[in-house]
Specification:
Two copies of one chain form a homodimer.
Chain A (H helix, E strand, L loop, with lengths): L1 E9 L2 E6 L4 E4 L11 H23 L6 E10 L7 E11 L4 H15 L1 H6 L4 E9 L5 E5 L1
Parallel strand pairs in A: 5-6
Antiparallel strand pairs in A: 1-2, 2-3, 4-5, 6-7
Helix pairs in contact in A: 1-2
């Protein structure tokens, strides 16, 4: 069982303490807010989840990269509840990586292993693109 | 649009940077892990989301509390994708709060306002209980 304990601090600020002993400060989106918003955390969780899968899958494929970034963009509903209607993931990989292997790794994560994407995909449309930077001067692009 | 940029650091460690300028470190669950796990972040996001709603609703009801904590427990599937099959929220409120108003505030959050619960509830069973500590020596309990 995973457990998180969250305490109200002041105004709209909350601090969560995780089972792993990590502290997450949350606040609303405002100037000088104390922490990330809950909906930002959701996107961060998605990138961490799929990112860890892909690192693990590429390692099994014996493929190496020098840098790996994921940008995620969420488009929210205008009415309550303001859920993400669409989520776009942009995977940026730096290294000599065959595009078909990268696509396979991403699909395995999004469709099978990543708990976060698999909890969100029934209510939101998750799409992705990837960019492979190799050699450093060129870029391979692909959308799904 | 909400955007988060996440960078691979090493091993399974990632750092997310949110639109609000906050940094979230993520890692797998292990001794000396560098940050929270993505699935812990998901639970933290849920508590922050429903917590902020409830603070806001109680304020509109002109009800005051001295302390407010939320414990959340998630039970994961045994097979991939290891989504949360059940999520249990325990709201702990300290103050002279009428139970019916507290129930109304929680229900409004979970069912209508909280974007996170409304993204998760179609794939996971979300239940809650609340505890009102007032006067400090007694506790009112209720399950939904």
């Amino acid at each position: 069982m995973t457990e998180v304990k969250t305490t109200f601090i002041k105004d709209m600020e909350f601090v969560a303490m995780t089972t792993s002993g990590n502290k997450i400060v949350m606040d609303t989106l405002k100037e000088n807010g104390a922490g990330a918003t809950p909906m930002e955390l959701l996107l961060a969780a998605l990138t961490g989840c799929t990112g860890m899968d892909i690192v693990s899958i590429l390692k099994k494929m014996k493929l190496e990269f020098t840098k790996f970034e994921i940008v995620v963009q969420g488009e929210r509903a205008e009415e309550h509840p303001k859920i993400y209607k669409k989520i776009r993931l942009i995977y940026k990989l730096y290294g000599d990586l065959p595009p078909d292997k990268v696509i396979h790794a991403i699909d395995l994560s999004i469709d099978k292993y990543c708990s976060v994407s698999n909890m969100l995909k029934s209510v939101t449309e998750i799409t992705y693109e990837y960019k492979i930077y190799y050699p450093p001067s060129s870029v391979h692009l692909k959308n799904r």
